[in-house]
Amino acid sequence: MDKVQKLTPCNSSLPPSTEHPHAKPKRKPVPGKKRKQGGQKGHKRHLRELIPSEQCTTVIPCQPAGCRRCGDDVPLEPPPPQRNQVWDPPELEPIVDEYQPFRGRCPCCDTTAGA
User: Fold this and answer.
1) Contact 6/18 with Cβ under 8 angstroms?
2) Is the pLDDT of residue 43 over 60?
3) Does the global pTM surpass 0.85?
4) Strand runs (DSSP E) across 3-111, as ranges?
5) Is the pLDDT score of 71 beyond 70?
6) What sign has the CA pseudo-torsion 64, 53, 82, 44?
7) What is the DSSP letter of 54?
8) How far is CA 61 from the centre of its chain?
């Protein structure tokens, strides 16, 4: 005895909107994708080395205003502090050229001439 197959948008000419959203079949896993996203175990770390503080454009000391819990003063640890450097590319300034072509009329032959 043959099984009766239920008509769905996948196996008939029914529009997709006739299928209940929760009744859609689950996606099949992509074959060959075995690794998780991101850096894999054992890969070489890529890290930008810090430049000396003297070569930075500005050095901004960030000190806590107070304890997060009670608000009391927090004694600072002795140097060296933790360092974070943010690299921003310089702003590009456009070069704007303006051309002002002048026209004139020859007084002798009444011909116009332009640059």
Assistant:
1) no
2) yes
3) no
4) 103-105
5) yes
6) positive
7) G
8) 27
